[in-house]
Design goal:
The structure is a homodimer. The first copy, chain A, has 16 helices and 2 strands. Chain A is mainly α. The mean pLDDT of chain A is 94.
């Protein structure tokens, strides 16, 4: 078994070794730009950690690790267009830097390349790996569609929100773990518990992201602070605040999310004030704690030695208390 | 062996039987709209014709037929955004009707669904089918990137143009045939000749499309006439005309493709006049004839009874003399 740090170093190295220096430049320059931005490499890390937990040769999991990162970046390239996000990992987003057309097309080829990498895995594993990636990408698209719908809906519930972030974010974390387990020939039951772990961890991860959108340091976070508020994203913070607020404050909050103001600073400031007045950060941190417990419960049930679960346990702690 | 007409009826029926009536609507409404527009269903037809030529049970090829049509429509949804095309099959394009964001996202899910359909094929065929689709979609993205590049380049050669349309259009026709042959367990040599047939036929098909862009009836063609000219697409007509024209006319042609005019009617009229002055339509029809001969040569070499090639022979004739 390898240490968490060693595996992360290994994962980062894999990406340095890939060569996407291809023609036409129009297509592969935004592609390389995206991958060079780095990021946490969380999804490939999960592939590797799962493979390692079930004692697989890490080399065998490398291509699947690249595949999930490409698939993830494909969704980011397109989401950033739809959300009009100016920054990603502290740098201009692809659509901002290269234009919408190139961001669409580079995203498309990135998605195809994800399958190309999966096809390099052992042939007998290919159908199950392709199925896992395909199912999850359909879910991610559905999640993104709900996310866009929610921006204009006024009756979004917390339950709907959790479903949306499960689809948009958590299922890909679960699928990354599942792919690692598939490559390691894990038993079906363990694979299911591992997916469950990934799903709950993914929900906790996204709720933490919602908190970071309001309370974090731009230099660490790499995205514009309060952009969820500007985009009228009805995150868990908003939904909890509306639930807890008195009538006047609830009305004010809702009106900020309806209004077409251009004074974004004032909007962000006032909304965060209201979030703080009702202590919603504590509520959401409590939720994160609950989902983390559910994740750990699932991890506990997996049929491998306790010591082999240590890396995922540590990662779960790191992710749900992260600052970026 | 089935008749060409019967197989086309069969193909159209497959699409009527698919149910994409799913949630969220944001995602699946543009999806259904696209498929309901119909179109020639050429790519699924090619899957079926290839399977039929090698005596496969057509039922076994149905899912691959749906997959290639979904993959093709995915590329159309995104290309129409990049090319700002208002019409497709005589109706508003998805991005025009539903907006860019929904066109991006519906295209994405359509691509994922293509793999979902491939996964329904016999498991032992899945790796080869996924590989065929993946390779071709990377090529299609590369072709689309070259196509966009060519709009602003002034030194595009005919050879580069043929490479671009091979990538953007012809390889998907070749891949559709190959998938049908894969499902029918055709021998490798025949499969290669069949792909070659598809490639040359695809080039001829696209050259015919270039002609139809200038000389056809909107009601039959379903796209805006002269849109290649408006978009400064350096089609084979333009490249041939510049080659044949005297200095003054060549300069005029080139300047029309550089100028940012808003008088599109005048631009189209004058460019087509120059195309006609130099008889480029005849040249291109000759090229179409040559590529069709190459296609038929490849078909001749395929290792099945002559009579089983009849449908593809007929289709090749129909496609390269079509009016829409």
């Amino acid at each position: 078994m390898n240490s968490l740090e060693d595996i992360l170093v290994y994962v980062k190295k894999i990406f340095e070794d890939q060569n996407f220096d291809k023609q036409p430049l129009t297509l592969y320059e935004p592609f390389r730009y995206t991958l060079a931005l780095g990021g946490k490499r969380l999804r490939p890390l999960l592939v590797m950690l799962a493979a390692d937990m079930f004692s697989a040769d890490l080399k065998k999991a490398e291509n699947a690790a690249v595949a999930v990162e490409l698939a993830h970046n494909f969704t980011l390239l397109h989401d950033d267009i739809m959300d009009a996000s100016p920054l990603r990992r502290g740098k201009p987003t692809v659509y901002q830097k290269f234009g919408t057309d190139k961001a669409i097309l580079s995203g498309d080829v990135m998605y195809a390349k994800a399958y190309e990498y999966l096809l390099k895995c052992d042939t007998d594993k290919v159908p199950a790996l392709v199925k896992t990636l395909t199912t999850v990408l359909i879910q991610v698209c559905e999640g993104q569609a709900y996310d866009m719908d929610f921006e204009t809906r006024s009756d979004v519930t917390k339950r709907e929100y959790i479903t949306m972030i499960s689809l948009k974010t958590a299922v890909l974390l679960a699928a990354s773990l599942k792919m690692g387990a598939l490559i390691a020939d894990a038993d079906a039951e363990s694979m299911n518990y591992l997916s469950e772990f990934g799903l709950y961890l993914g929900i906790a991860f996204q709720l933490q992201d919602d908190i970071l959108d309001c309370w974090s340091d731009l230099n660490e976070f790499g995205k514009v602070i309060g952009s969820d508020i500007v985009d009228n994203k009805k995150t868990i913070l908003f939904l909890t605040a509306v639930e807890k607020a008195d009538d006047d404050d609830a009305k004010e909050l809702i009106s900020w999310y309806l209004e077409k103001t251009n004074d974004f600073q004032k909007k962000k400031q006032r909304v965060i004030e209201l979030f703080e007045k009702y202590g919603v950060r504590d509520d959401v941190e409590q939720m994160i704690g609950q989902y983390t417990i559910k994740a750990i419960d699932a991890l506990d049930k997996i049929n491998v030695e306790e010591s082999r679960k240590e890396n995922l346990r540590t990662l779960a702690k790191q992710l749900t208390s992260r600052k970026k």
